[in-house]
Amino acid sequence: MPVTDSTPQGENVDYAEIAKFEELAHRWWDPDSEFKPLHDINPLRLAYVDEGCGGLSGKRALDVGCGGGILAEALAARDAEVMGIDMGEAPLGVAKLHQLESGIRVEYRRVTVEALAEEMPAAFDVVTCMEMLEHVPDPASVIAACARLVRPGGHIFLSTLNRNPKSYLLAIVGAEYLLGMLPKGTHDYAKFIRPSEMEAWTRAAGLELVDLTGMTYNPLSRRYSLSRTLDVNYLAHARRPAET
């Protein structure tokens, strides 16, 4: 499907952050590339979303900050009707090409989540925004837009990194500089988000915070797993209250 461009000016976008991923976009679907962590955690993310929303089949889903489409295609493979949005032209181009190879149908658009919320309020059963909040100037604005996009009774799934000394050591010093799991400069520690901030922003957006679950990495087994520990990476499940 074509990638349509409906980019407004002056929105909640950090173009320096986008440029980081533009340069690597051609390697997005290489499971041994810089995007290996995304491939490794994708089954965990998908299972968390599928279970949390009561099954994706037949639901209309939006993936905010979809990049090259790893999660978007996985959602569609569970029989959801999926739209993926991003502000990076190169990742969207990669996503479009990959779906031609995979045969999995996803609609991709270049548009900010705030602009789409104005255009399509309450249009989705499920909204996901994974590994994006720590790359935008105003993450609270993204969460508020996600809340407007989901239908009453619908579900929002978010993921990000906690802000504390342990996350700095593991996610930046360890992952970027010692283990080389991510390119240096991928993350800005100041943009990491504490769970208390996540809770406050979801509440301010009129959402109910259903769950917080951590993701941990074992460097010996080189495997990720879900955990009750929120010290570094974590997932959040929020719900828009049903209308009464």
Would you give an account of this structure?
It is a single chain. With 244 residues, this protein is of the alpha/beta class. The protein has one domain: 3-Layer(aba) Sandwich (Rossmann fold). Helix content is 37%, strand content 24%. The protein contains eight helices and nine strands. The chain has a nine-stranded mixed beta sheet with strand order 1-4-3-2-5-6-9-7-8. Strand 2, helix 3 and strand 3 form a beta-alpha-beta unit. The longest helix is centred in the first third of the chain and has 17 residues. It is globular and about 50 Å long. Pathway: Cofactor biosynthesis; ubiquinone biosynthesis.
Give descriptors for this structure:
244 residues; alpha/beta; Rossmann fold; nine-stranded mixed sheet; disordered N terminus; 2-polyprenyl-6-hydroxyphenol methylase activity; methyltransferase; ubiquinone
Would you summarize the structure shown here?
The protein is an alpha/beta fold and 244 residues long.
Count of individual beta strands: 9
CATH architecture call: 3-Layer(aba) Sandwich
The run of helices and strands is EHHEHEHEHEHEHHEEE
Average pLDDT figure = 91
If you compute it from the alpha carbons, what radius of gyration comes out, rounded to the nearest whole angstrom?
17 Å
- Structural class category: alpha/beta
- Summed up, the domain count is 1
Ranges where pLDDT stays below 50 over 5 or more residues in a row are 1-9
Enumerate how many helices there are, as a single number.
Answer: 8
CATH homologous superfamily caption: Vaccinia Virus protein VP39
Distance between the termini: 38 Å
- Classified by CATH, the class is Alpha Beta
Estimate the global geometry from the Cα principal axes: globular
Strand content: 15-25%
Largest sheet: 9 strands, mixed
Q: In CATH terms, what is the fold-level topology? A: Rossmann fold
Which percent range fits the helix content? 25-40%
Pathway: Cofactor biosynthesis; ubiquinone biosynthesis
Catalytic activity: a 3-demethylubiquinol + S-adenosyl-L-methionine = a ubiquinol + S-adenosyl-L-homocysteine + H(+); a 3-(all-trans-polyprenyl)benzene-1,2-diol + S-adenosyl-L-methionine = a 2-methoxy-6-(all-trans-polyprenyl)phenol + S-adenosyl-L-homocysteine + H(+)
Organism: Thioalbus denitrificans
GO molecular function, one term: 2-polyprenyl-6-hydroxyphenol methylase activity
